[in-house]
Specification:
The complex is a heterodimer of chains A (324) and B (686).
Chain A: H1 2-33, E1 40-46, H2 51-63, E2 69-75, H3 79-88, E3 91-95, H4 97-104, E4 111-117, H5 119-130, H6 133-138, E5 141-145, H7 150-160, E6 166-171, H8 179-188, E7 192-197, H9 204-213, E8 217-220, H10 225-242, E9 247-248, H11 251-256, E10 260-263, H12 266-278, E11 289-290, E12 296-299, H13 301-307, H14 314-320
Parallel strand pairs in A: 1-2, 1-3, 3-4, 4-5, 5-11, 6-7, 6-8, 9-10
Antiparallel strand pairs in A: 10-12
Chain B: H1 4-22, H2 29-33, E1 55-59, H3 61-66, E2 82-88, E3 91-96, E4 107-111, E5 114-115, E6 117-118, E7 123-124, E8 136-143, H4 147-150, E9 157-163, E10 171-179, E11 183-194, E12 197-208, E13 214-218, E14 221-225, E15 231-242, E16 248-265, E17 267-285, E18 291-306, E19 310-311, H5 312-320, H6 327-335, E20 340-342, E21 345-363, E22 367-382, E23 391-408, E24 411-422, E25 428-440, E26 443-454, H7 458-462, E27 464-470, E28 473-481, E29 488-501, E30 506-528, E31 534-559, E32 562-580, E33 586-589, E34 597-606, E35 611-620, E36 634-647, E37 650-659, E38 665-666, E39 673-674, E40 677-685
Parallel strand pairs in B: 4-9, 28-31
Antiparallel strand pairs in B: 1-8, 2-3, 4-5, 6-7, 8-9, 10-11, 10-40, 11-12, 12-15, 13-14, 15-16, 16-17, 17-18, 18-21, 19-20, 21-22, 22-23, 23-24, 24-25, 25-26, 26-29, 27-28, 29-30, 30-31, 31-32, 32-33, 32-34, 34-35, 35-36, 36-37, 37-40, 38-39
The chains are: A alpha/beta (324), B mainly beta (686).
Chain lengths: 324, 686
């Protein structure tokens, strides 16, 4: 089994290197396909200048580091600059929901990639400014979803605790309607789902505790800040009490006491945004929704020791999840 | 600068972003990347240690379990610069860097955010805390002044002991310890539910016989001291948690403690303390992730020291021996009728009510902050500390703000300010500025500057300990406070380094510091006009202290089974004390009253069969004391072995702790001999 894994790893390495070479080759081709040495101008509109936003911008720039691209960065508050960029830039990359809101409100005709934005925030903005998500895509706006599919968390949970029979899921108001779909995904992973729907008006401990108590693993699905903050502390404390591992969605959750976290890091987002820019043809006409292609997985070894979970090397789980 | 159009756009955006997140079905990146308010730190913000404005040592559960500590104070030996000592066997003192007298009073000590520092003896009565090692989730020690967040009593450092949440355990836990020196400790804790309230309720009992009686040579002569320093304490504590909805959580704590301890200096009295507290903490999370917190608490210490009562005729022969009495004075004294002048009990009552409101906020892109407004009332009463008045009280009000500015990815600035207003006193304004520069991956340099003030306590500013026949005749005098005692002032600066290596398994913390204290409150010896110009101690701003030093701590945890914690501090203290202001003025050099070197090492290994083996070595260099106090340096080795079992739903642990393996050493006084202690412990969690 071990040697098979090693071989899988080598195969994976060759595959990754192959893709990188292929990408380099295709970039070169693209380069030569543009005889006019006019660089493609990418204009970033950022919601904030703080770390995650800057990391996305830096990630894109690092991946496109050659003289065929030029860059500018605008804060979402600089409306004049944004309006100019909508005319002069080849591609607008919005980083964050606030920036996307600002750009989409100006009905851009240039190609737009909305990054570091969740599916629900994009849908809300698309409906507001274009009438529907589909209309936004038709207008050349592309979305790189920030929220990782819960399915990946379920899959990771099963990889970490193969003997787990029941998976508890906490759903906030933003994902109440997904209960049926998530339940079937849990079932598909070979477990029984225990779903708790929380709301801002209910006693969170009272409703979460019974579910954690009868679960072998617990997955809080990210929701609004209020729900996330109001439940995280209690979930982590109850998981300690009942020795139930938590598969979380952020580094902060992991540091607080979750066993593992799977999430889109700003670097992951930057990398996928760069991929999308490189594959320029795909966004030439219509935009579209792009599920997060990359993700980060981290583990809390102290919690693993407390729970008696024998952690395998990270690559094992990345392979299991089919990461590139 | 912004023009009006840009400013309008900016304001529009500030409102536009929240609009996205308020709809319950919409999640933004802020929801995914945002802080979770799991722990608050130095400034009451959720901050990483390498972005905190002060040096911090966290003593977590793993460290507590690995340590060979038996009492909570033993844990502070693991903190660089902290000195733990025993004035009496059951009257420990804890201080940081300097000023370690019988009542060390320049640390703020909190339990779950409630100050346990009491104002009548200006110190922490550690036996009344009622917190056992098993109750603690973690301890956060801020090494350095922390007045902007914890108030003026966080003058040198602050300690926050965070106890376990009622949600962490379930069911019944029983613990017991038995050892030599008459150690008999036991506790029962139950975590469960009362309706919608999750609670942790505890009952504890502790007793010991203190140090052995002393009989031996001291300074060339045979000395015998009978030490009546035993203790017995019973504590009941309740911590309840209620979360009526997702936004609000309410924690209620209350408890009572009865302690009976022998205290004294060769001559001992039995002190009985009745202590009770009530503590309410309400917090609300707002939809933008900010938080409001309201904290109220009340502490009450009722202290009774048994002492020998004295009548006037019993003390008269001593009074008549005084050489300043004239023949007429003697005749007058002899005519006075007998009466009780020293009551059989010395009583002291100390009460504190404190209320504080805190709120966190985020401004612009990179600025976070927390503000607070609070009020406090202290009230003390004693039949011998405040002369004729018996009581003293004080109201104080405070406002504070702490800001964190992430100026760049690798640069964080912190600023904090607190203003304290007290009845009939000058306002006190303390502040702190700090910059944390992440100059390489997982490596940070911190520069910090602090100006802090510590207000004199009620006892310090109001003490007048006289033995009177009546309001006109003082028979004896001990201490009186000067009329115009100022607040103590601290100016400190530091350069700190934090490094984390090998995927966080090795953490290094180095602090180079200078602390200058002026107007330090002490006692000087003066003739006192109201006491026939006889000598007594006048409490006043007597001392000046200047400290340079270096301290470091290294924590190495290569795996869950192995742990090494080491710390060391070098403190170069220059302290000058005014001993007498009456000419000829006499100054005293007190620079050697603090150990220059302190250090400890804790090594723990947990075998695959869950046998935990620990060794903890502490070193303290020589201290110079004046009278009857011991100067010798010591190295103390503590060992511990603990074995755990899980039988169905019951967790059992048996432990053997040996404190101070080998020869005895002396704690503060020559007669406080810390001999080898052997403690057998057992715990059952059902």
């Amino acid at each position: 089994m071990k040697s098979l894994r090693n071989m899988t790893g080598i195969y994976h390495l060759i595959k990754v290197q192959g893709i990188v070479l292929l990408l380099l080759f295709s970039v070169s081709n693209q380069t030569f396909a543009h005889p006019v040495a006019e660089p493609i101008h990418v204009s970033f509109v950022v919601s904030r200048t703080s770390e995650p936003y800057q990391k996305v911008v830096a990630g894109v720039q690092a991946a496109l580091f050659n003289n065929h691209y030029s860059f500018s960065e605008i804060h979402q508050s600089a409306i004049n600059d944004i309006e100019n960029a909508l005319v002069t830039a080849d591609i607008i990359v919005t980083v964050g929901a606030g920036a996307a809101a600002q750009v989409m409100s100006l009905n851009p005709t240039v190609k737009v990639i909305a990054s570091l934005i969740t599916d629900s925030a994009f849908a809300s903005l698309a409906e507001k400014h274009y009438g529907s998500t589909k209309a936004a895509f038709s207008a050349g706006v592309s979305l790189i979803c920030l929220d990782q599919p819960v399915q990946r968390s379920i899959k990771l949970a099963k990889a970490l605790i193969p003997e787990a029979r029941s998976a508890g899921l906490m759903l906030g108001p933003a994902s109440h309607q997904n209960a049926g779909m998530l339940s079937s995904q849990v079932k598909k992973a070979g477990m029984v789902s225990e779903i708790v729907k929380v709301s801002a008006t209910e006693n969170p401990i009272l409703i979460i505790e019974p579910v954690i108590k009868k679960s072998d693993i617990f997955i809080p699905v990210p929701d609004s800040r209020l729900i996330n903050i109001a439940t995280a502390k209690w979930i982590l404390q109850l998981s300690y009490r009942y020795r139930v591992p938590v598969i979380a969605y952020s580094q902060a959750y992991l540091n607080g006491g979750a066993l593992a976290a799977i999430y889109s890091s700003p670097e992951n987002v930057g990398r996928q945004t760069a991929d999308l820019i490189i594959e320029g043809k795909r966004i030439s006409d219509n935009g579209g929704r792009y599920r997060p292609a990359y993700f980060s997985v981290e583990f809390n070894s102290s919690v693993a020791a407390y729970l008696g979970v024998d952690l395998k090397p990270k690559q094992y789980y990345l392979d299991w999840l089919g990461a590139e | 600068m912004f023009n009006s159009h840009q400013l309008f756009s900016l304001l529009l955006c500030l409102f536009a972003v929240p609009n996205i997140s308020v709809a319950s079905s919409v999640i933004t990146e802020d929801d995914l990347f945002g802080e979770l308010h799991l722990v608050s730190s130095v400034t009451h913000l959720e901050q990483r240690i390498d972005e905190s404005p002060a040096a911090v040592t966290i003593i977590d559960r793993r460290t507590i379990e690995a340590s060979a500590a038996v009492d909570v104070v033993d844990l502070f030996r693991l903190v660089p610069g902290f000195r733990v000592y025993y004035v009496n066997a059951n009257y420990p003192g804890v201080t940081y860097h300097a000023l370690g007298d019988s009542n060390p009073r320049r640390l703020e000590v909190k339990v779950d955010g409630r100050s346990v520092y009491e104002s009548i003896y200006s110190s922490v009565q550690w036996t009344t805390l009622g917190v056992e090692l098993q109750d603690i989730d973690f301890i956060e020690v801020v090494r350095g002044a922390n007045a902007p967040a914890d108030g003026s009593n966080a003058f040198l450092a602050s300690i926050n002991i965070v106890t376990k949440s009622p949600l962490l355990d379930s069911g019944l836990s029983m613990r017991s310890q038995i050892g030599n020196d008459g150690i008999r400790n036991g506790s029962v804790a139950y975590s469960g539910k009362l309706g919608e309230i999750n609670h942790r309720t505890t009952l504890r009992y502790r007793s010991n016989d203190g140090f052995d009686d002393f009989s031996g040579m001291y300074k060339g002569s045979m000395r015998s001291v009978s030490l009546e320093d035993d203790a017995e304490a019973v504590t009941f504590g309740f911590r309840g948690l209620w979360t009526p909805n997702a936004k609000d959580s309410v924690e209620l704590q209350f408890g009572i403690n009865n302690s009976d301890i022998g205290i004294g200096k060769q001559y001992y009295v039995q002190r009985e303390i009745d202590y009770d507290y009530q503590h309410l903490n309400w917090s609300r999370i707002n939809s933008d992730g900010s938080k409001y917190e309201f904290v109220f608490y009340h502490n009450k210490f009722d202290i009774v020291d048994d002492q020998d009562s004295l009548t006037f005729y019993q003390v008269l022969p001593l009074v008549l021996e005084a050489d300043f009495l004239s023949a007429d004075d003697i005749d007058a004294l002899l005519l006075l009728p007998d009466k009780l002048i020293v009551e059989p009990q010395r009583t002291a009552l100390s009460e504190r009510w404190d209320v504080e409101f805190r709120g966190t906020f985020r401004a612009w892109d990179n600025i976070r902050g927390v503000y607070c407004a609070g009020a406090r009332r202290d009230k003390v009463r004693s039949n011998d500390l405040f002369d004729m008045d018996d009581t003293a009280s004080e109201n104080s009000y405070r406002g504070c703000i702490n800001l964190e500015w992430n100026a760049a990815d690798n640069l964080v600035f912190n600023g904090g300010f607190v203003s304290e207003v007290r009845d009939d006193h000058e306002d006190l304004n303390s502040f702190r500025l700090a910059a944390n520069y992440h100059f390489a991956d997982n490596q940070t340099l911190r520069l910090a500057f602090n100006q802090g003030y510590r207000a004199p306590t009620l006892l310090e500013s109001n003490q007048a300990t006289f033995v009177r026949y009546d309001e006109n005749l003082v028979l004896a005098a001990d201490v009186v406070s000067a009329d115009d005692i100022d607040a103590e002032r601290l100016l400190s600066s530091e350069i700190g380094y934090l490094g984390s290596f090998f995927q966080d398994s090795l953490n290094v913390d180095v602090r180079l510091f200078r602390e200058s204290m002026t107007s330090v409150i002490g006692e000087r010896r003066e003739p006192y006009a109201d006491f026939d110009d006889r000598q007594l101690n006048v409490r006043d701003n007597t001392d000046y202290a200047d400290i340079y030093g270096l301290e470091w701590q290294v924590q190495y945890r290569p795996s869950q089974r192995f742990l090494v914690h080491a710390n060391y501090s070098f403190v170069d203290l220059s302290q000058i004390s005014i001993y007498r202001l009456t000419p000829p003025i006499e100054l005293r050099q007190e620079s050697n009253t603090n150990p220059r070197h302190l250090g400890s090492v804790l090594v723990n290994y947990v075998t695959e069969t869950d046998l935990s083996l620990s060794a903890m070595l502490n070193y303290q260099s020589t201290i110079y004391h004046r009278v009857d106090e011991d100067n010798a340096s010591y190295a103390r080795l503590d060992l511990k072995a603990a074995k755990s079992w899980q039988v169905k739903n019951t967790h059992a642990q048996l432990s053997l702790t040996v404190q101070n393996v080998g020869d005895q050493y002396r704690e503060r006084y020559f007669y406080n001999q810390f001999k080898t202690r052997v403690i057998l412990g057992m715990q059952l969690d059902f």
